[in-house]
Task: structure prediction
Amino acid sequence: MATPLLSIRDLCVSYGNITAVRGISIDVEEGQIVTLIGANGAGKSTTLRAISGLVKQTTGSIKLRDTELTALAPHSIVEAGIAHVPEGRGIFANLTVHENLMLATYCRKDRDKIPEDEERVFSMFPRLKERLWQLGGTLSGGEQQMLAVARALMMRGVIMLLDEPSMGLSPILVQEIFKTIREINQDGTTVLLVEQNANMALKTASYGYVLQTGEIALHGLSEELADDPAVRAAYLGG
Amino acid sequence: MITILLQQMLNGLQVGSVYALIALGYTMVYGILRLINFAHGDIFMISCYFGFFAACALLSNAIPTWLTFIATMMVSMLLTALVAVLIERVAYKPLRYAPKVSAVITALGIGLFLENFTLATLGPTPRGMPSLLPNVNYRLGALSLSSVQILIIIISIVLMILLDRVVQKTMTGMAMRAVSYDKTTASVMGVPVDRIISTTFAIGSAVAGAGGVLYSLAYPIINPYMGVKIGWWAFIAAVIGGIGNVRGAMLGAYILAFVEVFTPMVLPSSTYRDFVAFTVLLIVLVVRPTGLMGRVTAQKV
Result:
C-alpha cells in the first residue's frame, strides 16, 4: 500500500484538564474523500484544528507525506498544502468577496496561476462573481459557505479539510455543497470531511471514521459503516 | 476677522497634521490587537530624540540641507519602528492571550519606562532641535505662512494618503484588516499573524517618527515629557474619529486641532482648550459611542 497523503498517529489533544482527543490514528490516501463523523464534542473539529496547528497536540504526530506538521506554525502548514475550511466558515465580514479570495493566496509562490484558479472558482460558484465587490458580511449563509470553499480552492492545497460544511444550510443547499465537494475531489483534491450529517457524509466519502468522546469507535469503508447497525442506531436515525 | 480665521485654520491644519500622524499609530495598533498602546506618545518623544541626534550628526557634514532633512526623517522613522517592534516582541506579545487589562497596564508601564529611561540617560535639560531647513515666511495678502508650515502639511498629507493606500490596496494591508477581524482564521488562510502585527507596529511608529521630526521643526524644544500631552491629544483624536479606523483618526486629529486653535479665540484663555477638547470627546462618545467613523462590531464571546 502506498504511503498515505495525510497520516495522523496516536494524536492526543487537551484543553487544560479536558482531553478532547485521546490517541486517534487516521490515514487519508491521496484522491480519497475521508469523513470523520460523530456527535457534538466527539473531537472532530479538534482533530482538524490540530492538523492546522490551531491547537497543539499533547502527544502524537501528524504527517503530510514526509512533512511533520505538529512543529509548524499555522501559516507554514498552509504553505505545506493544507486548505482548511473552518467551522462557522470564518468569512472576513470587513473584506470584500474578492479580498477574501485574494487573502487565501497570501503565501502562494505561483502568483501567475492565480487568475486561472479564480476562473475555476467563478465557474463553480457564479454567484460569487456577481457579489465580488460586496463585503463578506453582506452575503447569505449559503453564499458564505460557497466563499469559504472557494477560498480553500484559491489556496490550492493538496488536501482540503472541511469542518461541518452543511451546518445551518437548507436541505437544497446541503445537497449542492456535497455535490461541490465531490467535484472538487474529482478535480484531484483529497478531502477530509468532518460532518454531523453522517448520512450525507457517508454517501459522499469512500472511507469513514466514527469518533466517540475523543476516540475512534469504528472505521471502515463508507458503505460498510452505513450498514453497521450501531452506526445506524447512533448517527443515521435507525 | 476673516484673516484671523484663515490664519488660525492654517495653524489648525499644521497642528492637526502632526496629531494625525500620531493618532494613526494608536488606531492601527488598536485595530489589530484591540490594545490601546499608551506608550505611543512616548514613542513619539523617542522619535524626536532620534531626529535630534540624527540631525546633529548629519549637520556637521557638508551635505545639502534638503538631503540632511530627508536623511533625518528616514533615520528617525527607521529607528522608531525598530524600537516599537522590539517593545511589541518583548512586552506585548507574551500577553497576547492574557486579559486585555494586563496589556494596557504594560503599555502604561512601557510609557513610563521610556520617559524615565530618556530622563536618566539624556537628562531633563530640553534639547533644541537644530533648524534643518531655512524657514522662509511668505505673505499671502494679510496671511502669513512659513515654509515649515507648508512642508508639515504636505508631507503629512502625502504620508496619510500613502498609508491609506497601503491599508486598502496591498496584500499586507488586506492581511492587517483580516488579522484585525479574526486572527485564527487569518492564520488558517496562510497569513503569518505575528509578522503582520510587527509590521503594523513598525508602520504606525514610523509614521509617528515622521511626525516627531516634523513637529520638532515647528516646535524645536525636545524633552522627555513632551510625548505625554501630544500622546493624549492624538489618542483622543483617534477615539473621536473611531479608534481602529485609519481615516477616522485623520479626521479626529484635524477636528481636535481646530478645537485647539479656535478655543482661545472664543474663550478668554487657551487653558480652556483641554476642557473644550474633552467636552467634544464626551459629546461624540454620547452620540456615537464608536466614534465618528467607527463601525459597530459585534463583540465575540
About this structure: The beta strands of chain A are 6-15, 18-28, 33-38, 59-64, 67-68, 82-85, 159-163, 190-195, 207-212, 215-221. The two ends of chain A are 35 Å apart (CA to CA).
